[in-house]
Amino acid sequence: MSLLAAAAARLSRQDMLQALTALLAALCLVLAMRWPSGGAVVNESWAAVAPVRAVLLALAALAWGASVGARPGRDELGESFVPTPEEPPHGEPAWRREVAATLAALVAMALVSLPFDVLTHAAAYPTTSLAWSLAAPLLATGGYFGLGLALGRGMRLARLNSLLPLAVPAVMAAAAWLDVALELRLLFPWFATFAVSPLFAGVMAAFSLLALWTARPVPEATS
Amino acid sequence: MTAVPSAARRLLAALSLLAAIASASTAAAQASVQLELGVGGNVVVGAWNPLRVVARDVPIGSRLEVVFDQGTLRTGEVPFRLSLPVSGGPGLSVVDHSVYVAPFQSVSWALLGPEAVVASGSLSGRDQDSRPLDVVLSRRSGSYAAALGDGARVVDVSAAQLPLAPEAYDGVRSVIVDGTTVAPRLEALAAAAAAGAVVVVHGEMPASHAELALLASTPRSRLGAGGVLAVTGSAGDVAAALDAFIATRPPPGELVATAAARPLVTPPAPLRQQLVVAAAVAYAVLAVTVTRLFGAPGLLSALLLAGLLSAAAWLYARPTEPQIVGTRTVAVVGGELALATRLEEHYTLPATTVAVRGPARPLDTRAYRVDESGLQVDLTGWRSVVIVRAPELVDAPFVLEADGLRNLSRLPLHDVLVVGLGPQADIAPGALARPVPGEDGPAHESYAALLPFLPAGSVVALSGCEAGCTVWLAPALLDASVEEL
Q1: Strand pairing of B133-137 and B172-177?
Q2: Which residue in A126, A204, B102, B181 has its CB near the most CB atoms, within 10 A?
Q3: Of B292, B296, B318, the CB nearest to A5
Q4: A123–B318: do the CB atoms touch at under 8 Å?
Q5: What is the Cα–Cα distance from A171 to A146, expressed in whole angstroms?
């Protein structure tokens, strides 16, 4: 199964399809609210659409990363447990394929929502370059997915899985707080969208590499 | 312990003496800085004023930094920062500049050397006055002050204090010379007249003032935006002649403000909101549907569609230029000269710093910087600023000859109008046109709002409208001819 087919299959599942619908609906709503109407000519729609898109993609990536990372391992489930194809045990080759498919589906979500960014960037003429405006959400998607994997695994090991739904928004809030406190564009995609930030790019690239390393294919164990 | 030889002692004493002399001469060469703002130190608020800095023995590479706080209690600090190089070194260093002085809270200045502040000072906001100056070069300035009345701001300056730059006379109403003091430079009086001041040559001039006859050869003549009057009689006669001349002169400040009231640029119109939102919703529905129904080919189609839509959005929604500049010049013609004030509206889409070379100011009160390269204003995205350049002297494009108006410029004059006669035919370069009564109709929008400031017989014309119109105004040029017609 190719990565494209795996991503399409993952994206067709109800959870991600609804998220994609919600993402596009949210962007349509923000676009309708911020695009100039009547006799207005001042177009500052990009300043709302781009950060909203980046934050929603990062939140989605963090949530699915944490969900996949928090899957129980074979040792917890028992040798006789037969998992569903959608929920392979942590660490197995099928789980790695699930990680890769989820990451690819998230990247597809980022690409599908790209015209909103390009349209508003073109019309609003912001100081930020288009390249960064497109790169920042992609970096945030990969980076927050990697961060989510680590978060999910950490919560599982700490036996705090039940707090995962709280931990995901808490991490986003902490990222925003940290950026405000340090006066840096380090972690929170909302702030990073507005200006090129090598720090943000570095941190997100590191977490993205973690995600890619986790998603690397490994040979099936032979018994 | 060994005794110091007497020769060495003498050498030490000589060295000590040399050090003492050097120290004394350093103290004598202590730096001094004098800053004078306004003609003779009289600042006119709401006008260009001359700024002169005379520094003595300041370090090489010094800079003058002046900060005008134009804010109010409501707006807070709105600084205009002026930064100019001062050559420095032993002896005198002089810096002459013209600055526009808007109403201010305070003015502070400092001369900064490479390592430390050499001198500093301030000017209180209470010292400001927006009344124009009546500059008197006379030993009897009191009589002129009495004749011009309580409302006049009569200042007594020496001939050497008259600036040579035309824009420095922006806040000067008149320059009165009666020949009882040192003769002023002819260039200074010509600059004053052309810049809009009325130069009054009062009474018979002594031999030392003989060259003033070049300017005041007739009792009344226009030069640029101002004029020259040769008046005999008392100081009261001077005041009466001055008032009569000023009544026929359009107020320069109001001309500029009126010309700038109409927008100079049209911002790019965005795509219609309904169209954009409808296209976005249709795309979102299509992307979700094909992804759900057709698996990998569907996702691939959605990605291709995203790419195509992005390219189309970039092509059709992107304004062609990040910054739009519109210009209009208002020039007041008198004799062979015209005083031109150029207005530039800079409309920027991305946040930027607007930089303009040469002396200029923003029309409204806002923070800006001026240095030797020109003016810089910071603008946020989708905002505009109207820049008013310092008035400059140019050749008059037309003159009144016996048979009519002759176009002396290289550009055709169009939309010609004589106030009181009506529209006239266009005048080609070098051509002569006799003013005739024309049909009444709506005046051209470029100058329609300026007509109420002009007396009958004034000539108005446009030129160079392909790159930003110049509105030429010649007040009362045909005053006698209009009555005949």
Answers
A1: parallel
A2: A204
A3: B296
A4: yes
A5: 13
Structural tokens at position B233: 């009689």
Q: Beta strand pairing status for B392-395 and B337-348? A: antiparallel
Query: Which residues face A153 on adjacent strands?
Result: none
The tokens for B149 are 């009345």
Instruction: Answer yes or no: do B295 and A44 touch at CB < 8 A.
Output: no
Residue among B214, B176, B167 at smallest CA distance from B195? B167
Q: Is the pTM of this model over 0.90?
A: no
Enumerate the β-bridge partners of residue B62: B86
Count how many residues are written for chain B. Answer: 485
Place of tokens 């905002």: B383
Closest partner CB to B273 (pick from A20, A36, A108): A36
Q: What is the pLDDT of residue B480?
A: 54
In chain A, what percentage of residues exceed pLDDT 90? Answer: 83
Q: Rounded distance, CA B327 to CA B322, Å?
A: 17
| Closest of B120, B130, B134 to residue B198, by C-alpha | B134
Distance from CA of A104 to the nearest CA of B (A): 11
Q: Supply the DSSP symbol for B349.
A: S
Q: Is the pLDDT of residue B11 over 80?
A: no
Higher pLDDT, B441 or B66: B66
Instruction: Give which of A35, A109, A113 to mutate to test B binding, by max B Cβ within 10 Å.
Output: A35
Q: What CA–CA distance (Å, rounded) separates B79 from B68?
A: 6
**Contact by Cβ (8 Å): B404, B432:** yes
Backbone angles phi, psi at B26, to 5 degrees: -65, -40
More confident residue, B436 or A26: A26
The tokens for A102 are: 């989820």
Out of B292, B310, B318, the one facing A114 most closely (by C-beta) is B310
pLDDT of residue B409: 94
Residue B21 pLDDT > 80: no
Contact A112 B306 (CB under 8 A): yes
How many of the other CB atoms lie within 10 Å of CB of B372? 10
Q: What fold characterizes domain B32-127?
A: Immunoglobulin-like (2.60.40)
- Separation CA B118–CA B135 (nearest Å): 33
What's the number of CA atoms in the CB half-sphere (13 Å) around residue A182?
Answer: 14
Mapped onto helix, strand or coil, the DSSP state of residue A119 is: helix
- Rounded Cα gap, residues A132 and A189, in angstroms: 12
Identify which of B284, B310, B313 has the shortest CB distance to residue A25: B284
Cβ contacts of A126 on chain B, cutoff 8 Å: 350, 381
Distances (CA, A) of B354 to A46, B98, B344: 23, 20, 11
A36/B270 touch (CB, cutoff 8 Å), yes or no:
yes
Buried (b) or exposed (e) across A134-161, using 16+ Cβ within 10 A? bebbbbbbbbbbbbbbbbbbebbeeeeb
Of B284, B303, B349, which has the smallest distance from its Cβ to A125's Cβ?
B349
> Taking an 8 Å Cβ-Cβ cutoff, which residues of chain B contact chain A?
267-271, 273, 276-277, 280-281, 283-284, 287-288, 291-292, 295-296, 298-300, 302-303, 306-307, 309-310, 313-314, 317-319, 322, 349-352, 381-382
